[in-house]
Amino acid sequence: MSALARVIAVICAICLSLGASLPYMSLWLESKRGLDGPQIALILASAGIARLVTGPLLMMLPHRLGGEGRALSLLAGVAAGFYALLWVAPGFSLLFLFAFIAQSCAAAAMPLVEAQALNAGRSGKIPYGPIRGAGSAAFIAGSVGVGWLVGQFGADAALATAIFGLAATAILAQGLPNAPAARHRGPLGSARATWRQIRQTFANRPIRWLFFTATIVQSSHALYYSFGTPIWIKQGFAPDFIGLLWATGTGIEIIFLLLVERYLKNIRAETWIALGGIGAIVRWLGLAFSPGPIFTLGLQSLHAATFAMTHIGTMKVIAREVPPAEVGGVATLFFSVSTGTVIGSAMLACGPLYAQFGARAYVVMAALGALGLGLTFVQRAQRSQTAPAAIAAPPIG
After folding, report:
1. Environment class of residue 390 by beta-carbon count within 10 Å: exposed (0-12), middle (13-18) or buried (19+)?
2. How far apart are CA 365 and CA 209, in angstroms?
3. Model-level pTM greater than 0.90?
4. Per the domain annotation, does 390 fall within a domain?
5. Same domain, residue pair 236 and 310
6. Which of 155, 299, 169, 174 is nearest to 224 (CA)?
7. How far apart are CA 350 and CA 204, in angstroms?
8. Are the beta carbons of 166 and 83 closer than 8 angstroms?
9. Which domain holds residue 372?
10. DSSP 18-67
11. For a Cys-Cys bond, which of 69, 157, 244, 301 suits 153, CB 3.0-4.6 Å?
12. 41 is a domain residue
């Protein structure tokens, strides 16, 4: 197998696993282990909340093991093993521990896969975009295929597919390049550099506002990520149709991202985040009132707004405000906070909300979208007030 084919196979394998676990893990925990909403939320959220600590620690593995390929193989293999132990964990405490280790290792493996895909794209044989697109296609195949399997064989099929994808990742990654990794490799380097970067990041007002606005809009996905499938099951949707719902959101997102740079690249960063907030209000309010299958399918297309538009705005702000050499560190810090700690905390809160209100809990997610939207207007007003002073300032020198 060529190096490029191996990279594509690895990204497809790990995204297949994600397509199986993200939509259906809560369903497995509820139907096969009998957990309630708060217990499921604790299991699903804990690894994300701790990612700001576990992420930098696990990302030092490439240096310790002599390269990204070996680290990726180890992380994926450990994740697969501990996911398999969920079947035999005798109580909630061990179930929580095994799931925490598995999810932490799987989350740490994904950036290494992205790095391999980016390096393969730089070789000139094939751009990064199609390589990453292959992974997104594997996620769609996983969510649709596992939806059918769950309908035929039960929720165990989802966990089995997730384990298969991670095990395949571990095996395939053994043949990936093992270029020496830099010492203290991690999201922001050494501990001293980490704290210096954090201080510099939060001293920048637009970046500081970004952490509030974009993170709040992205956190409105918490109920969808943690309990979207069980809610749809209770509404009478078939598992294979639920797989289609998940695939629709990802598919529309892919199409949007392919078109945005060609036709919409001049839209301001804050406008993208505001549009994401508007999409969150519409999408989550719609889902809160248990619409039928056709309307739900239409609402899923708003994933292009709630996730993709917010993501584009985020990256535009970072690219505008941060020197090129620091973009990677700031972006990683943002996503550790946003998709890790904050969304993890929101998922933890969604446990009691789901147990008490079911689909109506989406109203709270719509409120988060509204809050993020409101903060973009506050940010814009502050920028307009400071702009005249900046223009009137005398030139330096």
Report:
1. exposed
2. 20
3. no
4. no
5. yes
6. 299
7. 32
8. yes
9. 187-384
10. HHHHHHHHHHHHHHTT---HHHHHHHHHHHHHTHHHHHHHHTTHHHHHTS
11. 157
12. yes
Round the CA-based radius of gyration of the chain to a whole number and report it. 21
Confidence (pLDDT) at 134? 87
Which residues lie below 8 Å from residue 257, measured CB to CB, with a gap of 6+? 308, 312
Exposure string for 130-158, b = 16+ CB within 10 A, e = fewer: ebbebbbbbbbbbbbbbbbbbeeeebebb
In a domain, 395, yes or no: no
pLDDT tens over the chain, length 397 residues: 787 888 889 999 999 999 999 999 999 999 999 999 999 999 999 988 887 777 767 767 776 777 778 888 999 999 999 999 999 999 999 999 999 999 999 988 887 887 777 677 666 667 766 777 888 889 999 999 999 999 999 999 999 999 999 999 999 998 886 654 444 444 444 445 555 656 666 676 777 777 788 889 999 999 999 999 999 999 999 999 999 999 999 899 888 877 876 777 778 888 999 999 999 999 999 999 989 999 999 999 999 999 989 988 887 887 777 776 566 566 666 777 777 788 889 999 999 999 999 999 999 999 999 999 999 888 777 766 654 443 333 333 2
CATH number of the domain where residue 94 is located = 1.20.1250.20
d(CA 87, CA 175): 30
227 and 251 together in one domain: yes
- Residues with Cβ within 8 Å of 54's Cβ and at least 6 positions away in sequence, in order, are 47, 104, 107, 108
Count the Cβ atoms, other than its own, within 10 Å of residue 292.
10
351 & 375 share domain: yes
Please indicate, yes or no, whether residues 196 and 249 belong to a single structural domain of this protein.
yes
Q: Mark out the alpha helices in 123-185 (DSSP H runs).
A: 128-153, 156-173
Number of domains in the chain: 2
Contact call for residues 79 and 159 (beta carbons, < 8 A): no
Residue 106 domain-assigned? yes
Contact between 336 and 52 under an 8 Å Cβ cutoff? The reply is yes
Same domain, 154 and 193: no
Q: How far apart are CA 82 and CA 87, in angstroms?
A: 9
Residue that finishes a domain, picked among 142, 177, 212: 177
Residue identified by tokens 């940010």 is: 379
